[in-house]
Amino acid sequence: MSQPVSVALVGAGIFAKRTHLPTILKQDCFELIAIYSRSAESARKLLDGVSATPDVYHDGIEGSGGMDALFARDDLRAVIVCLPVGPQEDAVRRALAAGKHVLSEKPIAGSSASAVALTEWYARLSSRTAAPAPLWLVAENWRAEGATRHAARLVRDAGRVRTFSLQCSVDVQPDNAYVGTGWRVGDKQNLPGGFLMDGGVHWVALLRAVVGDIKKVAGSASLSAQHCAPVDTLSGVLWLDGHDGAAGTLGMCFAAPGRGFELALNVVCDGGTLQVRRSNGPFVVEWTIATASTDDKSGGSPSDKSHTRNFEIEGIEEEFREFARQVQWSGTEQTSDENKGIDLSPDQAVADVRVIEGLLLSSSRQGAPVIL
After folding, report:
1. Half-sphere exposure for 332 (CA within 13 Å, toward CB)
2. Number of C-alpha atoms within 13 angstroms, CB side, residue 211?
3. Distance (Å, rounded) from C-alpha 76 to C-alpha 73?
4. What digits encode the pLDDT tens for the residues 249-300?
5. Three-class DSSP category at 279
6. Entry pTM
7. Cα separation, 239 vs 342, whole angstroms
8. Mean pLDDT, to the nearest integer, of 186-204?
9. Pairing between strand 136-139 and 101-105?
10. Is 305 left (phi over 0), alpha (psi -120 to 50) or beta?
């Protein structure tokens, strides 16, 4: 077995405490040696109720040093960053510049322009030395879900995509913890699109992983629940960069009264029809193949043959394991084909942001199509 990857968790917010910290602690592939937060109080709250005793870094006078002191540690190999957009981009730059491998949260940045600037900076960093550059992946757990990867294989083997539809809805209430963070929605929000960008990139990642790249969009956005401002609902048409330019539809709503989370993706291909569903339980992936009947009395009409599989929700664990795996392989002679895994590259994360951003831009132009 490979040695565990020594890792630091940067960030102490809701998602870091609920998801990142417990995921790191239960994975044998990681050794948590440090955490960082802006204040001593938030760092202490992050560790409340856990037995782990990592070193604590924060920006207060009483701290053992701030972020740069943490990144200067020789025994630290990798960093997992879970911060709001803006501060996260800065932390990613500083960690990579210090030679640490990085797994950063989605969205990769608040805009495609900022995301591209960050990826171009990373490319320049990588070209400055003959040694392998530090690894940078983006934690898009919907791309890592087993259901997503299974659905992608089915569509890949089914020929041309004819059309598709993606519908997602949830009822975000004013007392939702993420409403209270301030940077996603509200007067101090600094994420264009609010929840549509923060959560919407998940669903776009699923869609793109299954049907491929998107070249053009047209959309309409609106706001129904003021606590979800600036916008909470998005509808659009998307054209694929392939499959003869096939088009499909998308609908997202964070203000669906009385509804729990619901998602349905339908993809019609030459070789069959895919449906991916998720609500409060596991993913359900149903694949239906239309075959010509051998029954002469039927006149050759199609008969449906369906296969259904359930997949537990495990994308976060999978993306963390993938990060550890790639860190452990980094700098070896292993070829990219031999070491090919889940594509959590920054380029994929940039493309996810571009789709949401393009739909919002189209809405501001009365639905005029936007080339991505």
Report:
1. 11
2. 34
3. 5
4. 999 999 999 888 999 999 999 999 999 999 989 999 999 997 765 554 544 4
5. coil
6. 0.93
7. 24
8. 89
9. parallel
10. beta
